[in-house]
Write a structure and sequence with these properties.
Elements lengths: L2 E5 L2 E4 L4 E8 L8 E6 L6 E6 L6 E3 L7 E6 L4 E6 L8 E7 L18 E2 L3 E6 L1
Parallel strand pairs: 2-11
Antiparallel strand pairs: 1-3, 3-8, 4-5, 4-9, 5-6, 7-8, 9-10, 9-11
Length: about 130
């Protein structure tokens, strides 16, 4: 059974860093583009980052661009999200996601509707 498992969340002070991991099982992620989203209480799910299957193309949400970096390690069947210069408004549950079929355009990966498989999430809390 295919699944994605996120880890690495936690409590961090503003200005700090975290690295989130998303380990895949049941599928080899090298064939698929993947993304990260987040959702804060009472808010809609927000796009954070997407990375093409070969790592050549990236897309970032406006609020995280320049601070977060997505990467992938096919030897570990894992994708990562490096969170730097964290702000209290980055506090949310973070989810990774995978899409089975190639999207018509890379911009499509910015929509949560484009993904087929989701992890259970990992909580990131940034204190002031």
């Amino acid at each position: 059974q295919e699944q994605l498992v996120e880890s690495g969340g936690g409590l961090v002070q503003g200005g700090g860093s975290l690295r989130l991991s998303c380990a895949a099982s049941g599928r080899t992620i090298s064939s698929y583009a993947m993304g990260w989203f987040r959702q804060a209480p009472g808010k809609e799910r927000e796009f954070v980052a997407a990375l093409s299957r070969d790592g050549a193309n990236t897309l970032y949400g406006k609020s995280v661009k320049g601070r977060f970096t997505m990467s992938r390690d096919h030897t570990k069947n894992t994708v990562y999200l490096q969170l730097n210069s964290l702000k209290p408004e980055d506090t949310a549950e973070y989810y990774c996601a995978l899409r089975w079929a190639p999207a018509p355009s890379f911009a499509t990966y910015g929509s949560s509707d484009s993904y087929d498989l989701w992890g259970q999430g990992t909580q990131v809390t940034v204190s002031t």
